[in-house]
């Protein structure tokens, strides 16, 4: 049986996905989960993906944003946030 | 200080008439809060210019949470600096909206210190809505709210704060303990409530009986509505008393029964419970004479929504009857199957009701492993999504051809 991928590794991969998509495409949590499952196949499960998302949010590498729906993005200065 | 309020001739029109006015409320708050004062000004300008000056969404929240804070920024901060940020906070209400005044005072104290002081008790979601604060106040507000036992509610693509009617705490018609179920689901789905992971929002609403006081059939992605599966309890003497007191049982009850399952001969009321639709009409008209049965539980419906991206939908039955007993494992299993499917196949901003419309209810039922039942069909031959495959023998079609 294939070795499971760790939460830390998945979190790092997700962070890279968000970083690469920044400014071009907004990714939802389910997009990240689907992409990861496509890459790692049965070496990863949904709970690992959930834990990885939690990790990138709680370590403040990424933030949740809302534009009609909820997305995960890199922290940035909110354009509309006038001083 | 009231003299210093901005001139608001258009808003003043909304104070006329006998009904309560939100403008009066904002004016009251404006006497103490600079943000409320600027809110009056920006609102008056919007009315005059016919342009909204708010931007909704973006980055705001508290650490770790993706819901509970709705970001609002204005595009004229130079004119209205006190509402440059005017974020809304949703606070998870207690089941049944029961509070001690002490708890309400504490919330108000926090909000007067760190926000505009204006609240909306309650929003259409059911949450306590705290209107208007700035980004730097979000973490302190969250810390102070949690210290007094409150948590943020849902917003965005997550489980929205579950809400319920007051159920058995005050209502004799409640067929299950809505407050207990709502509290249980709220605790069980904390992760889904605070960390948006769905295509779009998902709402649970719990009504104790088919009167559906929280309007779950029209607003919840999953409506859990109390019902019964035995017979309506009848007190024939009390029915007679209603008739003697002037109630026209035939006109007001029997003729208005949607299932036409009742009969009144002037002495005895008969109900064919096998065709009763549990609509509650007769019980509501003669509450002293009729009561729901004793074998109570809930009917689970799915898919309603208000019009946002697409038009409004009402819920459809997926489980005609289920006993509502903790830990509600059967419902949880069903919810997990629905979420798994929706997350895999749902489109961005597609509610579960819209997803069902797209894939077809028959396919949806098959995918979530629920058997079709007669109660899912509104009228015979109008819902052609149920196929009784066992009636078709292999090769039958070829033989016919």
Please list the strands of the largest sheet of chain A in the order they lie side by side.
1-2
Question: Strand order within the widest sheet of chain B?
Answer: 7-8-9-14-15
Structural class of chain B: alpha+beta
Shape-level CATH architecture of the largest domain in chain B? 2-Layer Sandwich
Give the % helix of chain A: 40-55%
Portion of residues in beta strands of chain A equals: 5-15%
Biggest interface, CB < 8 A:
A-B, 29 and 37 residues
Distance between the termini of chain B: 88 Å
SSE run of chain A:
HHHEE
- Supply the CATH superfamily name of chain A: Winged helix-like DNA-binding domain superfamily/Winged helix DNA-binding domain
- Report the radius of gyration of chain B as a whole number of Å: 25 Å
Q: Give the overall shape of chain A.
A: elongated
SSE arrangement of chain B, N to C: HHHEEEEHEEHEHHEHEEHHEEHEEEHHHH
Taking pLDDT < 50 over at least 5 consecutive residues as the criterion, the unreliable ranges of chain A are none
The share of residues in extended strands of chain B comes to 5-15%
**CA-based gyration radius of chain A:** 14 Å
Strand-pairing-aware structural class of chain A: alpha+beta
- The total number of structural domains of chain A is 1
Mean pLDDT score of chain B, rounded?
92
CATH fold-level assignment of chain A:
Arc Repressor Mutant, subunit A
